[in-house]
Amino acid sequence: MNVLGIESSCDETAASVVKDGKKILSNVISSSLKFHQKYGGVIPEIASRKHLESITAVVESALSEAKLKLKDIGLISVTCGPGLLGSLVVGISFAKSLSMALDKPIIGVNHLESHIFAGFLEGVTVKFPFTALLVSGGHTSLYEVDDYDKIKLLGSTHDDACGEAFDKVAKILGLGYPGGPVIEQAAVKGDPKAIKFRCSNTKGIFDFSFSGIKTAVLYYVRDTGCVTRCPLPVTRDIAASFQESVCNVLVEKSLAACKLKKTKRLVVGGGVAANNYLRKKFQASVVKSRIEVIFPSKSLCMDNAAMVAGFGYHLFRKGKRSGLDLGVNLD
Ligand code: KG4
Ligand code: ZN
Question: What is the reported pTM?
Fold first, then answer.
């Protein structure tokens, strides 16, 4: 079955066709990032307007890249939350109109759960149960996954999401937006042991907190007396030390969850999963415990519609579908 996926939860308008939940026939992404960059973050009103402008062309491109017509689509899978309200409404309305016009079923899927399954779109077979770490710009969570529709939250962030912390630290350092890639790049030539930044402790063992470390970076920059921008070597050391501490916490808690839940597979997803330093740390840390760690390719870590189409297919096979009353679900 060919599934058309539609994703519009943040600043990417994306459409993709995935065959039988595993073969990506097309994966088209149009980002409005450049319209937000000067503000240092995504502006919801701009994002929803840009979705409106581009969604038709993006869906047409996804179909033509897949060499298919609308009549060849068996199911429409669309992100219904969490995300930006106005942005989600654009994708959902478009998907519902298509569903009605073509008389094809529609399914609304959770954006975070789609990220969890992005790692299985490139030939890796899904074997349940597994532990999943989701690290994105809006969320940081650990899950116990027993099936496509049996996903249990083990813990999440109390304050800033991991990607959000990268974005805020990049802003403090004057490195631009989005912060993840620029921090990663600056950190390459920095010393991860130069400064002792620590992520705050949390009550729940699988919860996270990144707001304290962001403030610690802010105070460090203030106390070093950098007037507008720190000298490059200092910036590099701050980036590397911050990244080191954040990655250590992500690895430690994920492995602790695998141990407690006795799972031998760990799936990492979301934008921060594109970080090479994090990927290497995970690979090195799982050797002893013989845990298999699965990362999607970098392009599938970011928001995309292939993960939405793939996940929707599996839920549909389990008998789930939505009606034309499908609405935004921000939870
Ligand atoms: O999953 P995603 O594309 O969108 C959300 O659903 O939020 O994640 C975006 C987040 C941003 O905060 C961005 O700074 C972060 O992922 N990110 C990274 C890297 N690439 C993107 N964080 C760390 N290292 C990276 N290489
Ligand atoms: Zn996302």
Answer: 0.95
